[in-house]
# Entry
Amino acid sequence: MKNIYKNSRQNLNKAKKFLKNHNLIAVPTETVYGLAGNAYSNISVRKIYKLKKRPKRNPLIIHYYNLRRLKKDAFINKNFLKLYKKFSPGPLTYILKKRKNSKISLIANSGLKTIAIRFPKNEIIRNLLKNLEFPLAIPSANISSALSPVSSSDVLDEFSSKIKFILDGGTSKIGLESTVINLYGKTQILRPGSININQIGKVLKKKLSFLKKTNKISSPGLLKKHYSPGIPIKLNCKKADNKAAFIVFGKKYKNNNKNIFNLSKRGNLEEAARNLYKTLRKIKNLGFKKINIVRIPNNKIGIAINDRLRKAAY
Ligand code: TXA
Ligand code: MG
# Structure
């Protein structure tokens, strides 16, 4: 398909060239697909904000290959090291203090004192990061406040031909964005994800909390409206309204109707997470005008699913 490239050595070299020339590409990660640009380049970072129509005050996550490379740009601390050992590479993003002499574009972190850091696990993006002389700023590859993409065709659905190079890596394994944890100042979860608050609390030997609603944007992923398919969503429904797409979870629902979409017939929350954005996108593209959804259990990755649904419904 147009602008979609398979993972091969030749195509990785092409991808490298795009990035070195301050152009953007779409890349697979284990969470969702991202829009990648050179994090040291103002030109690249400006292009990211423009293409996504993202407010400039919403900072980007900087993706690294390893710790050695990160140390040039951020101060690390004890809690970071504990979590890094356990969870990286993987779907966890750390907020750390930025070094004054860091080469990270000032636009990439909205001029804040801190930067968000992630070491992705997907082998394709890791291979790319390993072979570049700069880290990558990679927000999810969607128009600001819309649904995140979990496949290369989702990226096309968001941007059509505006992205010239999409590196294909199949379907994202997790399907929801990384957990974001603040490690500079109060240790707190800013965005729930597949690595849950209890797992992190265990490693840090500490009871953690989620950031409560504030006016200040310490993590604009916490903006009220986000992850939206662009049609009204009603949560915690027992049954569906007339003509609504009905999203369900578990074996008690039969797919005896074209309006029913089951996130996981076997009632598995990880499977539901993987299917969430795909299902919302499908429903939108089928032309439904509203969505009803049953209650999703609020534990483990279910906490992240409910976080996204609340924002999608706002
Ligand atoms: O799984 C992911 O994290 C994906 C993949 C592509 O890596 N990326 C992603 O990026 O979700 P994005 O830009 O869609 O979300 C980044 C989140 C936002 O909520 C942003 O506000 C927060 O990270 N963030 C970035 N820098 C921050 C900072 N210095 N302090 C607090 N929050 C920050
Ligand atoms: Mg996003």
In short: The pocket of threonylcarbamoyladenylate (ligand 1) is lined by residues 29, 31-32, 34, 58-61, 91, 93, 95, 109, 112, 114-116, 118, 120, 138-140, 177-178, 180, 190-191, 218-221 (CB under 6 Å). The first strand starts at residue 4 and ends at 5. The first helix runs from residue 9 to 20. The radius of gyration is 19 Å.
